[in-house]
Design brief:
CATH topology: Spore Coat Polysaccharide Biosynthesis Protein SpsA, Chain A
CATH architecture: Alpha-Beta Complex
Strand content: 15-25%
Number of strands: 10
CATH class: Alpha Beta
Radius of gyration: 20 Å
Shape: globular
Distance between the termini: 46 Å
Order of helices and strands: EHEEHEEEHEEHHHEEH
Length: 260
Amino acid sequence: MKNSSSKRSLPNVTLCALTSVDIPATVKALEYSCRGIDFGDVVLVTDRRPSHLPENIRYSHTTKLENINDFNYKMVYELGSHIHTDFAMIVHADGFIVHPECWRDEFLDYDYIGSPWPLPPEGDTTTYRDIHGNICRVGNSVGIRSKRLLDYPKKAGIPWTGQAAYGKVWYFEDGFICCRIRHLLEAEGMHIAPLEVARYFGHETMIPEIEGITPFCFHKWAGTNAQYPNFLEESKASALLHRAEKGIRRRLPFSSKNKG
């Protein structure tokens, strides 16, 4: 096991997660993501402080996220208020850092980097496109964002609008940032990483461009990502075992206080 002195130091990056669900698995994802890296800060943004929260993880309060729409909105307009460093590395229970040794300093050359997106389906003229119709190949909510990008939508009063994808209108925060308001970010001098760099950062969809590459992080357990830890399944198994043990205790003929 590496000691702290052998870890990579990223003092200007906050490791963070925003959620009101799957808290035990999310905490494990934060802990796992700290292997090999000393971050400037580690924060869990949620509506109730979890019991037994590790000392190295800061609790920051938000109102309860009732659904995925709350998550998407808060990621765009609130998350920046919880971050006190130049960058934030965002992880989830189903997506986190798995190969800290694959870190590249060039990841911080951009205001946004995440896993590459696939090409839109043939004939689709709206999915993964900016307002000019250009295809956007990099997005994903598991990734790094600069503090100035996190703060920009709220400071600039950018309205919350949906993006067309796969024949519907979606309110997804990564699509909003990387497609819908990309032109506004670029006008402010902000930059989203190109596919050529992002393919070394994270993997979600199994696209040809990532073949043979070991990523720094991942999102979802598809394809080659299936090898990475699944803390959600571990949490479910632990909960089932706990309920089974409680059921067995209730069925015992004598409780411990009746013994002796």
